[in-house]
Amino acid sequence: MSNGRFILLACLVGVALVGASTFVTNEYYVFAAYFVLQYVVLATAWNILGGYVGYVNFGTTAFLAIGLYSAAALNKWLDLPIPVLIPIAGVLCGAVGLAMGYLTIRLRGVYFTIATLALSVVVQTFITNWDYVGGSRGIYIMRPSEIPVFGTYVAYLFFLMTVLAVAAVVTARVIERSTFGFGLAAIRDDETAAAASGVPVLRLKLIAAAISGALMGMAGAPLPFYLTYVEPTSSFSLAYTVNSVAMPLVGGTTSWLGPVIGAVLLGTMQQAMTVLISSSVNLLVVGVLLVIFVIAAPNGILGLIRSIRGKKPDPETNPLAAMLVAEKRSSQ
Fold first, then answer.
1. How many angstroms separate the CA atoms of 54 and 51, rounded?
2. Angle, helices 282-296/238-251, rounded to nearest 10 degrees
3. DSSP H or E segment with residue 230
4. What is the pTM of this model?
5. Which of 210, 252, 314, 318 has its CA 20 to 30 A from that of 244?
C-alpha cells in the first residue's frame, strides 16, 4: 500500500473513532479510550528509536513531563489554546531529544539506557523545584465544561488525541518505508557495518531521537487539561516508562503495527483491571507480560504470527533482548 493510501486509511479510522465516540453516553469509556490512544502515541514514539534503531530509551517520562509542564506553564502565562500548545511542546521536546541524542547516543546498550533514565531524574528534580508550575505541590488547570462544535471538553480532548495518534502512526509508517527507515534498520542490525557502508549513523540516530522525543512531548501537552491537576509524582509515574517499553515489545518492534497492537491490547486490559480489580495491579501484570514476551516471544505478537506462517523470526530484532544478549556476551 502506498503512503498516500495509508494516510487516507488512517484518517478514515480516526474519523470513525471520533464518530463512534459521539454515540457513547458513559463518559468513562471516552476517558479510557483517550488513555489507550495516548499510549498508541507513546509506544509508537518509543519504537522509532527503540525498535527501528535498537536503542532502549527509559526516558519517556522526561519527554512526556516536559510537554505536560510546558503546556501548563504557557496556558498559565498566555492562555494559549491546546492546538497551539501541542506543536510548541513538540518543538521543545524535539530539541531536548536532539540534545540528549548528541550527548548520549554515542553510548550503546545498557549505558545509553541508564543515561536516558538519568534524564528523567534531572527533569523531575527541575520541575519539583519550579515554583511557577507549583513545584512539588502541583498545579490546577481550569478548563471549560463545554466547547463549541464538540460539546463536552472530554470529546474535544479525545478528538485531539485521535489526531495525534493518527499522526504518530503515519509518521512511523512513512519512516519505515523510506530510505531513512532503511538506514535505521541497518544501524539496528549492525551499527559498525552500517557506518562502513556509508550510512550516516550519527545523523540518522539524532533525527530519530528528535522525532521520538517530539511525539512523546506532543502526547503530554493535552494531559494537564485531561487531568485538571498535575504534580511531579504522578507525572513521572513509572507506569509511563514501563508501558511505553512493554507495548512495542509485546506487539513487535520492527513494524508500525506492533506498538499499535501492544498499546490497544495492554491499554484496554489495564483499563479493565482498574475497574474490575485495582489500578495497583496494572504494573505487575504488564511487568509479567514483558518478561514472558522477552523470554518466550522476543519478536512479539507480530513475530509469533510470522513464525506460524512459516517465517523464521530473528531474536535480535527485539532491542531489549538484543541488549541483554550483548551484555551477557561482554561479561563472558
1. 5
2. 40
3. strand 229-230
4. 0.89
5. 314
Who contacts 282 (Cβ-Cβ below 8 Å, separation ≥6)? 239, 270, 273, 274
C-alpha dihedral sign at 64, 65, 68, 73: negative
> Tens of pLDDT along 224-275?
888 888 888 888 888 888 888 888 888 888 888 889 998 998 888 888 887 7
Please report, as a single letter, which amino acid is at residue 66: I
- 289 in Cβ contact with 246 (< 8 Å): yes
Query: Which residue stretches of 129-253 are H helix?
Result: 153-176, 179-189, 191-196, 201-220, 223-227, 232-235, 238-251
The three cell numbers of residue 46 are 518509543
User: What is the rounded distance in angstroms from the CA atom of residue 189 to the CA atom of residue 49?
Assistant: 13
Characterise 138 by phi-psi region: left (phi > 0), alpha (psi -120 to 50), beta (else): left
